[in-house]
Amino acid sequence: MFCDRQLKRLSCSLLTCETIKFVLKWNPSEHSLSSIRALLWKTFKDNQVEVVVIKEGNSIIVTCYAPHYLMESLLVTARDNVDMLKEMGLISLTIGYYTVYDEHAIDEEVKSLMKKLEMVESERDDLLEENAKLKDTIDTLGISYEGREVDESNKSSIQSSESEKEESKKMTKAIQMEIDHLRSSLQSKTGIHVYTDILNTV
């Protein structure tokens, strides 16, 4: 079991170091110090990161320090390994003042994106319904999509309906593009493919 244990004395002053903090969904009784060593090696490879404190709580918190001059290299390496770290139970990782990954922040962002997606999809559905009604109106007035003649008395109404229909279609396509963008954002945040509708032309 881990309990506020110092692993290694720093070879350089803390004044010349940056703090690195891992929060992991690990049961302290199921992991050893070698597990921490393995995690650090997989994250930073051969960069010289020194572990100072490991604390026990609902999760394991690993606090490390590394020299300032390694920060850029550590950030790049950590970002490259985030997916692997998530599979190992990473909740959050901060290096200096930079948050490399925060599961809770991403959860909130995903919730916000899902809510916005739901609203935009509802707006899209309303426009599709409006398009269908406009098409019925145009058909009723006697227009043909194959170019048949239109009664002169209905020409003004047909032109107005056609104009509304085209404007509605443009708005629908714009909204569909926004939906696709939101779904792409959700996929990048969650790693789960979100089904993309093929916009029906009406």
SSE topology:
Blueprint: E1 17-24, H1 33-44, E2 50-56, E3 60-67, H2 71-80, H3 82-87, E4 90-95, E5 98-102, H4 103-140, H5 155-190
Antiparallel strand pairs: 1-3, 1-4, 2-3, 4-5
Task: Tell me about this structure.
It contains five helices and five strands. The chain has 202 residues and is α+β, with helices and mostly antiparallel strands. It has two domains: 83 residues, VC0802-like; 86 residues. A five-stranded antiparallel beta sheet has the order 2-3-1-4-5. A hairpin with a 3-residue loop joins strand 2 and strand 3. Helix 4 packs antiparallel against helix 5. The longest helix has 38 residues. The chain starts with 16 loop residues before the first strand and ends in a 12-residue tail after the last helix. Keywords: Coiled coil.
Percentage of residues assigned to helices? 40-55%
Instruction: Output the strand order for the largest sheet.
Output: 2-3-1-4-5
- H and E order: EHEEHHEEHH
Oligomeric category: single chain
* Total count of domains: 2
Strand % is 15-25%
Number of helices: 5
Task: Provide key terms for this protein.
202 residues; alpha+beta; VC0802-like; five-stranded antiparallel beta sheet; 50% helix; disordered C terminus
Short recap of the structure:
By secondary structure, the protein is α+β, with helices and mostly antiparallel strands.
